[in-house]
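Entry for the shared binder. Reason: the reviewer on the internal report wants the predicted structure included alongside the sequence.
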Amino acid sequence: MKGKAVLIISQVALFLGLALGWVGMARAETWKARELRLAAERAAWRFGPLKVQPAILIKEAGYDSNIYYQPEAISDYWLTAGPAFDAYVVARRRLIIHVFESPQYVFFFKTKRERTWNNYLNGDVSLSFNRFMMTAGGSLNNARERWSTELDIRPRRKEKSGFVSFLYQKSYRLSFELTARTIDYTYESLEYGSVNINERLSHYEDYLSGRIYYRLNPRIQFFVEGQKGSYDFKDPLNSGDSRSQSIYSGFQFSPTGRIHGQIRLGYKSFKTLHEELPDYQGLVGDTTVSWQIMRPLVLRGSYQRDINFSVWYDNPYYIGTTWSAGPSFYVFRKKFRLDYTYSQTRNKYPLGEAPDSPPRCDLYTLNSVAVYYKIGKTAGIGITAGSWKREINILNWDATRKFIGLNLTYDF
């Protein structure tokens, strides 16, 4: 699997290199190439052909009353922070190289075993022509995080991925995109109850997807997407091998408009390769939208629903559904922003512990408020406080937590 991905990427890279002789073609470009080139032109630092957009990331810095999300709470002060940068090289508007790098340190004041370095690295190389854009890229991430709401611990995960994509823009309104992607997830060998995290979750994912875009106006695109996926686990005793077919539809919104983000909803057919395990057919979604309905008020909302691989009992997966909503108010000539967010997550499992027992269902509720102060054109520093609650229908594992912390946003 991994060798196949490397072969695909190397072949595409060779093709891109041979195509460099064509970079002097017509000056027109696709909408995606234009977005990438404009991002490079907005970068703050320039060193000849190299353009760099630096950033400081402060994800969370504060107090958490229950760092392990368990009934018997352990509190601590903690910080996740580090530098980040996007680097671009644009040659004659045709060859575009982009790299993102961010090392981040996670610090706990009392719980020393949770201190760690995480690193996130991804990049891509694109060739832009009159109506075509070809891109090859990948990522190499190494981090210890809470990867799902199901896990109360932070196992280290190494993620290696590669992709190739081809975009054809037939006209101003109509374009087509084909993408192949492979991902290798490797978790550390860590016991979690009676389960080894590495044996249960380490796997490969492969996707082939196609999209049709139709531009309604300069700031809104409608799309239809079809996707096939395969999931192959590294442990030969793991029964989670499965396949999926999905179809999505929705809208993409330009960041320069009053509506930001995307609406993406669809239907997924997920089939396990073991007859005794249940399949899933139903709604999936990946939606995050903010709408500035008037100068001081922005409404925010999100909806996420998909299959997640599980470590609990004999369930190969659970269906995770998360939605959130809340307003943002800008006051004092937009120097301050006040946020409120309400969010619920529901995890539903297809199997119970016994044939006559009800399936497990988890409910998570989050309330949070935040105050941000503008420190740049699009950046703000703020304080967030909130409460979190978990309720599980069949386990004595309900828990609550409260938190307050400092964070930095580049979407003010």
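Summary line for the report: The longest strand covers residues 76-91.
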